[in-house]
Amino acid sequence: MKRAMLHTRDFRWTSISSTLLPRLALAKEKPDSVILGITSTGKANIEKYQHLAKECIETAPKPNDIRLFWNKAGFTRLALIQLGENTNATSVRTAAASAAALLKKNGAKNIAVDDMGHPAAAAIGAALGTYDFSLRRDQLALTQNNSRTEKKDLFGAEPSEPVSFTHLGDETKKDDFHTGLIEACAQNFARSLMECPANYMTSVQFCDIASNVFKDSSKVNVLVHDEKWIDEQRMNGLLSVNAGSVIPPRFLEVRYQGASNADDKWLALVGKGITFDAGGISLKPSANMKEMRADMGGAAVMLSTVFAIEKLQLPINVVFVTALTENLPSGSAQKPGDVIFMRNGLSVEVDNTDAEGRLVLADAIHYVSEMYPTKAVVEASTLTGAMLMALGTVYTGAFVQGEELWSKIDQAAKATDEPFWRMPFHDAYLKPLTKSSAADLCNVSRGTGGGACAAAAFVKCFLANKDDVFAHLDIAGVMNKKVNAWDFDGMSGRPVRALIELARLYAEARL
Ligand SMILES: [Zn+2]
């Protein structure tokens, strides 16, 4: 009854998906601004602009120095950037991000980007470097019965329009530039999903967005499963975490069938979908708790990865699943000491309600590995604070079962500058979790250290076949810190581009 009433009046139920849907930043109009790269040896990538090289070397003497001109070479704004002696994908991504951010700050709307010999990297740098996040009041007004419609963001500032881009350079490289824009668009989509306040980003909203993203695609099926289905599936991990929330859980299943052979095995993607994590009865401290709106970062990066895979029409079958709920304290919330019987039949004692991610992941991992013949199951989650302690904000911790999968992840990481550090899967980490007198497993171990390793060993127990090729990616550390020039000072959307590259490697291996 309580839920039915909320349905009619609560803004949390009204769609904001049009605000958050990914938008490919491909310019249709004539560019007002331009980025041009010049090497330290005085060579312009584009012959037509060679005459500007001397000016660049003189006024921007060090690599990554930028000189901004007004009304020059046919553009309102011209950014000359010094590239150093040699360029590679990383240096071009950095250069494009820095120059595009500067142009945007100076009012650019439509930027022609010199590909600097690395078209995908130039597009990615420019599109990631100009990202920002705002929810516009006029888009939210309808949902809150608010008659005000002025175009201000929630904080009263004028929202900045997104910048768009055109390719400048060797015409035959145009497609690579477009591919780069798609990948950056996917990462920006993940950033927006993670940034979105939790009162708008609920289990229901997340599914609504997924349905809208793929509504015109003939190769994607979006299945939104409700509480009744979740109950029939015996996903008690998800139901138990959801018990403290007035918003019902959802189980989202997105299938992309791109392989020419319908029997091709699936690349299964699993993401943690806790739309807000207060910790439950084991309440978190209030400092920085607002960041826990991004505890659905795993689901956000996986949905965005499927978005890019579909846009790129990769010849591969991919299924993405996520169990979506909030984790809140209330009179009906799960309690420390509760015992849950999981989908695979194992019983779990909930010693700490803030270790809820592994409970919802356990049911999702078991479901997908039981229902689909998979070539690999790859799961991403903002799972443990211990991961941040171990690797800081630079590396994603990768727990991997299967050498071929690890070699692909490593290759994808190096191609995209989204680094992964291999962490250990070892059954010994599970031992302290089996000490419960009430259940097969406890959801936390105390005083043993290695919290990220114990969590990894826990989720691996729920594979339907214990030898399945499997990766658990703990992205808690890389959730929201600025490391590179193309990073945004907020939720990172990492490691979307590495995951797209991983899918591409699997697709190519098949061909
Ligand atoms: Zn938690």
From TrEMBL:
What GO CC terms are in its UniProt record?
cytoplasm
Q: What biological processes does GO assign it?
A: proteolysis
Give the record's keywords alphabetically.
Aminopeptidase, Hydrolase, Protease
Q: Which Gene3D superfamilies match?
A: Leucine Aminopeptidase, subunit E, domain 1, Zn peptidases
InterPro entries for this protein? Leucine_aapep/pepB, Macro_dom-like, Peptidase_M17_C, Peptidase_M17_N
Question: Does Hydrolase show up as a keyword for this record?
Answer: yes
Q: Which residues form the Cytosol aminopeptidase domain?
A: 352-359
| Pfam families referenced in this protein's UniProt entry, alphabetically | Peptidase_M17, Peptidase_M17_N
Superkingdom of the source? Eukaryota
What GO terms are given for molecular function? manganese ion binding; metalloaminopeptidase activity; peptidase activity
Instruction: Name the family.
Output: Belongs to the peptidase M17 family.
Q: Which PANTHER family match?
A: CYTOSOL AMINOPEPTIDASE, LEUCINE AMINOPEPTIDASE-RELATED
Record protein name field: Peptidase family M17
Species of the source: Schizosaccharomyces japonicus (strain yFS275 / FY16936) (Fission yeast)
Q: Which gene encodes it?
A: ysp2
